[in-house]
């Protein structure tokens, strides 16, 4: 007999439909599997055969052929164990349900018949809904990931025997109560706040502007001046996640196996801070079958690179495509994988090996040492960093005053108002933030009056901006205007935007100017 059941495979971070076909016929007893399978999937025949035996099923001594279609997609992982077992039982006549077309099955089988969790459960449920399926059978530990998706029933399984009893008209899983999942608020999540940081008004303003428009920012200055403190508090002033963002971020972490029963979804913005010794493969994502790297894990949140100049040059240059396009493509001989990479880059570095340049009363580095140190950051990467904020040493008086700065909540309220203006402006487009605008969008949304146009030309000439640098100044000015609730960009907005980029020329002007 022949049967087929539906499953979902994972390619990148997306789910793709896989049809599992089984044929049980007369002939020399055997178990063969085809369909461009990895070694993990090929091993399923031993796990499935033993799990069926220990679950009380006696498979007749016949020829069993399993095909996973389409054949041009490579199948990875152990999630096909459960659909293979159901397909065999259905073809052998041991499951009474003849119509399984509205169902999707996914899960790894233990030798005793238990259904074990698999990565990517959320992507599986989303793909199942997209394909019009009504029921998704998952391991019990993965069920809480899928219950947030509406219009599809997600059933958690403990054993293969439970599932077969259900399909044969026994246990009704739909009557089992749902475990509530509590979404924490931002206040419950973060244990740091901007009120903890005193002084540094320029860094505060630069950080607020960066977050309001999702502009990349670099903190540069002596060690111990608060660069890392500011970066770690960026998530506390970012707007709360929308449901769509929660699902997109959670999907990435689900594929990486970083969600659990206690944390079935990501309800806070990611903050990834890889060490400067990270390899390019771990940074961008990779492997024989590419998996998401730090760049993708930071999507929707913050990627913080502390001591930027200490990273390998090849690692830093990987940022070119993600910062420009919001995604990263990893190619292999069997296909290309596209991963999301829409994050806010926050970088921190010292201006020289000793950290005190350009204060020559303290800095003892030679000019060549300073140039070599700063030259580790290429001009293309600098052009992709919107804001360069210089930190200054904190005085003893500022340390001892003990006055608290403005709270994260107050800053976030202003940023959320600016985000509302951006949502209204870009309604009906694929643009989410000012930093995502392209050249045609700048002409449409960043129009200037004659006085402002002349002033911007002066900025362009005096700062020797590149074309990309010119666009960055205009985008930042648009964000500053949004923070003030202004529909038009004025000279003071352009002046502040230029000031937020001028530090770049102060440190790198001698190298690239």
Automatic annotation (TrEMBL):
Lineage: superkingdom: Bacteria
Lineage of the organism: Bacteria, Bacillati, Bacillota, Clostridia, Lachnospirales
Domain Mg chelatase-related protein C-terminal: 405-501
Classification via InterPro entries: CHLI-like, Mg_chelat-rel, Mg_chelat-rel_C, Mg_chelatse_chII-like_cat_dom, P-loop_NTPase, Ribosomal_Su5_D2-typ_SF, Ribsml_uS5_D2-typ_fold_subgr
Start and end residues of each Magnesium chelatase ChlI-like catalytic domain: 193-398
Protein name: Magnesium chelatase family protein
GO molecular function annotations of the record: ATP binding
Species: Lacrimispora xylanisolvens
Any Pfam family the entry gives: ChlI
